[in-house]
Amino acid sequence: MSTAARTPRLTAVPRSEERVTPLELFFDLVFVLALTQCTALMAEHPSWGSLGEGLLLLGLMWWSWVGYAWLTSVVNPEEGSIRFAIFAAMAAMLVVALCVPDAFGDSRMLFAVAYAGVRFGQIALFVLASRDEPALRASVNGLAGGTAVGCGLLVVGALFDDPNLQAAIWSVALALDMLEPFLFGSEGWKLHPSHFAERHGLIIIIALGESIVAIGVGAGHHVDAGVVAAAVLGIAVAGALWWLYFDIVALVAERRLSRATVGREQNDIARDSFSYLHFPMVAGIVLLALGMKKTLGHVDDPLETVPAAAMLGGTAVYLLAHVAFRWRNVHRFSTQRLAAAVLLFALIPLATELEALLTLVLLAALLCALIAYETVHFADLRDRLRHQLDQGSSA
Question: pTM to 2 decimals?
Fold first, then answer.
């Protein structure tokens, strides 16, 4: 046997299963640190500038995570050499997350270079996966060009000492990178609908987990009656956000994606509903986590303007993303969720006058009232949809 015949070939095994694999969940644990770091960055010195910086970095890391969600919907991450490449991407993503607190300081160039490593690792794996798929290869080539421009701008931005100029250049880089799939079409991409929907549902759970971590970090070592009450209310808020996403909306979205025509229609839905609209959901939860952290630290004092806007406004952004998510999938408008979001924005000035614990009471009460209204008002539709979905999944 010749040496060439014995040499293993670097290949990508096409995905055949619909469920998320353990390695994908392991990969997502790095994103937990990224969320925690963004919350910590914004919480250290809460200001509108720090909120903008935190959300910009979150957007960059979100888009890198999205790339791997699309990748692992095409290839099996646990087969062949891809497994080692995923571990390498995890290491690079860990470096990116570690750089977040000083990404607009001395760590800015390391952040940009490590981020480029994460992104180009994804491109390299896509090239392997598209060897025998001309349409997919064409889409990968377009993605590679957009990634090169975006990562190049990150490096250029890192050359400047002025944080504002750096942030402006990085914002342009993120915008161009995220617009690339929209501007250059989506015909060539491939995905497994159930896997793709489940992967995004799990990242919502991970983000909600960050809000719970923020409760513990905010409480510190001093636990009294006020902290206990705030912690219980915090769990109620996190549970309400979970309910609003998973009770029916996520199930209907998965069915809509599965029933879409394979190709451009299905890929457009996946791009808009999941890659784009899940970002404001995750960002809203991260902002809520910031507010939770500050609330647990001083339950008897009013929240300052920025933490109050983060907690109530972040929850409002989460609800508005649901409104857009529902419209994109089933072309139905959720008036009650829009009204709840508007009310949350209106409560921000009041939150700077009330004790933080009372603000948390109002938030929990509003979300629970929204859930109760939808449960009663849409009881028949909800029951019918859930039973139809259960029957479809067991068929």
Answer: 0.91
